[in-house]
Amino acid sequence: MQAWQVHENGEPSEVMRLADVAQPVPGEGQVLLKVRAANINFPDVLMCRGHYQVRPPLPFTPGVEICGETEDGRRVIANPALPYGGFAEYAVADAAALLSAPDSLDDAEAAALHIGYQTGWFGLHRRAHLEAGETLLVHAAAGGVGSAAVQLGKAAGATVIGVVGGAEKAAVARELGCDVVVDRRSQDVVSAVKEATGGRGADVIYDPVGGEAYTQSTKVVAFEGRIVVVGFASGTIPSPGLNHALVKNYAILGLHWGLYNTKNPKLVQHCHEQLTELAARGAIKPLISERVPLAGAADAVQRLGDGVTTGRIAVVPTGAQA
User: Is residue 229 classed exposed, middle or buried when 0-12, 13-18 and 19+ CB atoms within 10 A define those classes?
Assistant: First the structure.
């Protein structure tokens, strides 16, 4: 079969190589899956660079999120068991963690209804307890993680402010349903958010960016607001001033979604049921901006790492329908 492999750490376009390799052999409790679609996530970029908290042994195949097909023909959503990731024709995954692919979504959309939407659901509902009528601010609102949070926020009845970088991404954020869009390249984020909220600020802030975005968050978080720390796409990990959190009376909430797979897997299944129901009634629909063949995976991963993509890019192996 064909699979992308990383033999050394570095930029994805430089270290990912497409090769003919043997099909992976499932271990105990694992299943072999034919990859129907694999979505590109920022952890794929970080793993190529060697900067992710999970460091699979070299060489490894990236691709942490797929819609696959079991040997008996079932469509499932899975996180492949590294080092046999999803940017390949076949991958392996833990049988106990498979989720049914919703009938309402195609393969690429189904693959994208996993990490980003699970993270958004846990972040907004389990951690921040977002309520209808509250104001949600989403950084990088046009990206894969941000777009999921925007849709989930709207589905929950929140007023959503999306922060983006550039006019193209601003247009995407509006299409996603943001009530207010702030272009950080042409607007002052803090002033714009304060103006949009009448000076009150945002009740919940969803931050997959870190760096300057986090600093902005602390300036626009409302009384009893919650900042959900999801990731650090900017490459800069903030050092929060806890005295500031005390004086302004807000909460800083960390979210590592992957821990729920081991700490409370029943919640992951419950979340998937909620997401499936939302997708079935059209309240959420993953934004797939591109579908590329397997040969285009390295370039697509690099573009995500460079911050020039919107929504999700799906890698569709030859012969798969997505």
Answer: buried
